[in-house]
Design goal:
about 100 residues, mainly alpha, about 50% helix, disordered C terminus
Length: about 100
């Protein structure tokens, strides 16, 4: 198993916002690790997540499989392509005819 290495004073990275809640004990440890390493907490969280993700062999295999697939064959892309456009549902020319009143 490889080791996690937190470099001291290195916390200037490109970021993406991820909203989540974490346990208070984990938050306390992240704050303490930030103080210890002289880094911002977002850097610590990023490094911990990166380390954890690289350690899971099953996830790494899945990730490699997904990256090998063409973009259009992903389940999300397929579901987006299968959805009708908003215009087709409201366009009178393509909508099916429904009688205004029911015969009695």
């Amino acid at each position: 198993m490889s080791k996690l290495k937190i470099e001291h004073g290195v916390s200037r990275i490109k970021r993406a916002k991820l909203q989540t809640y974490i346990d208070q004990t984990v938050s306390d440890d992240i704050e303490l690790m930030g103080e210890w390493s002289d880094n911002e907490t977002h850097y610590i969280v990023n490094e911990l997540l990166h380390f954890a993700l690289t350690q899971d062999d099953d996830f790494q295999k899945y990730k490699a499989e997904q990256q090998a697939k063409p973009k259009s064959s992903s389940p999300r892309a397929a579901s987006i392509q299968a959805k009708p456009s908003p215009d087709s549902a409201t366009n009178p020319a393509t909508a099916s005819a429904v009688p205004a009143t029911r015969p009695q």
